[in-house]
Automatic annotation (TrEMBL):
InterPro entries: AAA+_ATPase (IPR003593), AAA_lid_NorR (IPR058031), CheY-like_superfamily (IPR011006), Homeodomain-like_sf (IPR009057), HTH_Fis (IPR002197), P-loop_NTPase (IPR027417), Sig_transdc_resp-reg_receiver (IPR001789), Sigma_54_int (IPR002078). Keywords: ATP-binding, Nucleotide-binding, Phosphoprotein, Transcription, Transcription regulation, Two-component regulatory system. The modification 4-aspartylphosphate is found at residue 57. The keyword Disulfide bond does not apply. Pfam families: AAA_lid_14, HTH_8, Response_reg, Sigma54_activat. The lineage of its organism: Bacteria, Pseudomonadati, Pseudomonadota, Alphaproteobacteria, Rhodobacterales. Residues 6-122 form the Response regulatory domain. The keyword ATP-binding applies. Residues 134-363 form the Sigma-54 factor interaction domain. This is Sigma-54 dependent transcriptional regulator. SUPFAM superfamilies: CheY-like, Homeodomain-like, P-loop containing nucleoside triphosphate hydrolases. PANTHER family: TRANSCRIPTIONAL REGULATORY PROTEIN. PROSITE patterns: RESPONSE_REGULATORY (PS50110), SIGMA54_INTERACT_3 (PS00688), SIGMA54_INTERACT_4 (PS50045).
C-alpha cells in the first residue's frame, strides 16, 4: 500500500523516529526523518516535489505539531497529516481533526495499526467517497463527508447538529457504514418520540419482573448495539434524570438493565443528533454541561439545504429516479422550470421536504415532464406573488443566467470563448452578461452571488 509513497516523519524521539523510518522503508515507502519542528519547516520548504503524507509527533522540543501543521497546511495542496499524540492530548488532536488533519494515533500503538492508518491517509481514504460523494456534491457537503471519513475509525462520540430534515440520521448511518463497525448493528433511538418514563427501559433494557408488566428480560438499545453504533436522535429532548444515567453509561462503559444486578459492558460508539443549540440549553440548566462535553468530542454541522445549492438538482434527480422506480409513471424528466424554482426555494424542511415534494409530484403528475406546479402546487393555489415566495421574473431570470454562466465558466476553467460556445451565445453577449450580472471569470466555480432568494 505504501510502495513508492514519500512519507515525512517529524519525531524528536530518536528510537521512535528510526524505527518508524526503518519500517516504512521495509514497506517500500520513501521515508524522510525530521527531528525538530524547525528542521521540518526548513526541509519541507526546500523539498522538490510533494510528500504523500506527514507523520508528526504533536510534542516536539521547539515547535508543537499544531504550529507545523498550520504552517504546512497553508500550501495550495497540503499533504495529509497523521498526528502521533500522547494520552492526554486528545483535545488537541480533536481540534486538529476539525482543522483538517487527516487522522491521529495515540501512543503507544502497534506498528500494524500505524501502517494501516497511514496507508488510509496516504492513499486518500480520508477523502470523501468517489468523485460524486455519497451525501452530496456541494463543497459544504463534501467537507462533511471528508470529516466523517476521517472520524470513521475512531471511537470518539460524534454530535451531528443541523436543522430538521438536513440529513443527520443519513450522515450517522454513513459514518457507521464507513467504519470498522459496519458489520455490527446500527441502532437508533429517538429521544423526543419516546415518553421520558419509557426511555430508560428502551435504552438500558430490563430484567424479568423489574416492574409490573416486565414479563421477560428485554435487551435495550445500548445492549443491542453491540460493538456498533448507538444513534441518539433529538438528544436535546432527553430529560435531566436520563441525562445523568447516560453520562454514567459513557463514563463507566457499562450499564445495568433495570432491575439488574450485574453490569453489562457497553461497546458501541455513541453518535447523537440535535436541531437545538445544546450549549444554550446547557446555559439555561436544561442540558448537563458534563454530558455535552462527552457527546460533542467532535461536532459535525450539517448545513441546511438552502446553503448547498449544488445538492438540490443532484438530490432531485436521485429522488426522482427512486420514485419512478417504485411504480408506473409517464414521467421521463424533471423540467427546467421545476429545477429553477427548486434552486430558489428556501427549503425550510430541508432534504425531507425535497424528498416529499418529489415523491408527491411523481405520484400525481400527469405529463411526461415534471413541471413547476407539480413540485410547488401551492404556487397555483395562491396565485403566485411575493407571499408565495416567488421571485419577480426578472430577478429569477437573472439568477438563472448567473448560475448557468458560472457553471459554464467553472466547466471551462474560466475560458470565456469556450464557455460562450457551451452556452451557445457569442463571446460578446457572454461578456456583456457577465458585466451586467457582475460575474468575474476567476470567481466562477458555482459561486453565485445574489441568487435572487
Ligand atoms: N444526503 C442525502 N441523500 C439522500 N437522502 C437524504 C440525504 N439527506 C437526507 N435525506 C433524506 O431526507 C430525509 C431526512 O433525513 P434525516 O432523517 O437524516 O434528517 P434529520 O436531520 O435526521 O431529521 P430530523 O432532525 O427530523 O431527525 C430522509 O428521508 C432521508 O432519507
Amino acid at each position: 500500500m505504501l510502495d513508492g509513497r514519500r512519507i515525512a516523519v517529524i519525531e524528536d524521539d530518536a528510537i521512535m523516529g528510526e524505527s518508524l523510518v526503518q519500517r516504512l522503508a521495509l514497506e517500500g515507502a520513501e521515508p524522510l526523518l525530521w527531528r525538530t519542528g524547525r528542521e521540518a519547516l526548513r526541509a519541507h520548504a526546500a523539498l522538490a516535489g510533494p510528500v504523500d503524507a506527514v507523520v508528526c509527533d504533536i510534542r516536539l522540543p521547539d515547535l508543537d505539531g499544531e504550529a507545523i501543521f498550520m504552517e504546512i497546511a497553508r500550501a495550495a495542496a497540503p499533504p495529509p497529516f497523521l498526528f502521533l499524540t500522547a494520552h492526554g492530548d486528545i483535545d488537541q488532536a480533536v481540534r486538529l481533526l476539525r482543522a483538517g488533519a487527516a487522522d491521529y494515533l495515540t501512543k503507544p500503538f502497534e506498528m500494524d495499526t500505524f501502517l494501516a492508518r497511514l496507508a488510509a491517509v496516504a492513499v486518500g481514504r480520508g477523502e470523501a467517497t468517489g468523485p460524486e460523494g455519497a451525501l452530496g456534491v456541494s463543497p459544504p457537503m463534501r467537507r462533511v463527508e471528508a470529516m466523517l471519513a476521517r472520524l470513521a475509525d475512531h471511537a470518539l462520540p460524534v454530535l451531528l447538529s443541523g436543522e430538521t430534515g438536513a440529513g443527520k440520521e443519513v450522515a450517522a448511518r454513513h459514518l457507521h457504514a464507513r467504519s470498522a463497525r459496519a458489520g455490527e448493528p446500527f441502532v437508533a433511538v429517538n429521544c423526543a418520540a419516546i415518553p421520558a418514563e419509557l426511555l430508560e427501559s428502551e435504552i438500558f433494557g430490563h430484567e424479568k419482573g423489574a416492574f409490573s408488566g416486565a414479563h421477560a428480560r428485554h435487551a435495550g438499545v445500548a445492549e443491542r448495539a453491540g460493538g456498533g453504533t448507538l444513534f441518539l436522535d433529538e438528544i436535546g429532548d432527553m430529560a435531566l434524570p436520563m441525562q445523568a444515567k447516560l453520562l454514567r453509561l459513557i463514563e463507566d462503559a457499562a450499564f445495568f438493565r433495570i432491575g439488574g444486578e450485574r453490569p453489562v459492558a457497553f461497546r458501541a460508539r455513541i453518535v447523537s443528533a440535535t436541531h437545538c443549540d445544546l450549549a444554550a440549553l446547557a446555559a439555561e440548566g436544561r442540558f448537563r454541561q458534563d454530558l455535552l462535553f462527552r457527546l460533542n468530542a467532535v461536532e459535525v454541522a450539517l448545513p441546511p439545504l438552502r446553503a448547498r445549492e449544488a445538492d438540490i438538482p443532484w438530490l432531485m434527480r436521485r429522488f426522482f429516479e427512486a420514485a419512478r422506480a417504485r411504480g408506473p409513471t409517464r414521467l421521463r424528466a424533471i423540467g427546467s422550470l421545476a429545477e429553477e424554482a427548486a434552486l430558489s426555494h428556501g427549503w425550510p424542511g430541508n432534504v425531507r421536504e425535497l424528498r416529499n415534494r418529489i415523491d408527491r409530484a411523481v405520484a400525481l403528475a400527469e405529463g411526461e415532464v415534471l413541471g413547476l406546479a407539480d413540485l410547488f402546487p401551492e404556487f397555483l393555489l395562491q396565485g403566485g406573488g411575493e407571499e408565495a415566495g416567488v421571485a419577480p421574473l426578472a430577478e429569477a431570470r437573472a439568477a438563472a443566467e448567473r448560475r448557468q454562466i458560472s457553471r459554464a465558466l467553472e466547466h471551462t476553467g474560466g475560458r470565456i470563448a469556450e464557455a460562450a460556445a457551451l452556452l451557445q451565445v457569442s463571446r460578446t453577449t457572454l461578456w456583456e452578461k457577465m458585466q451586467r450580472l457582475e460575474i468575474r471569470p476567476g470567481a466562477a466555480g458555482g459561486d453565485v452571488r445574489n441568487s435572487g432568494r
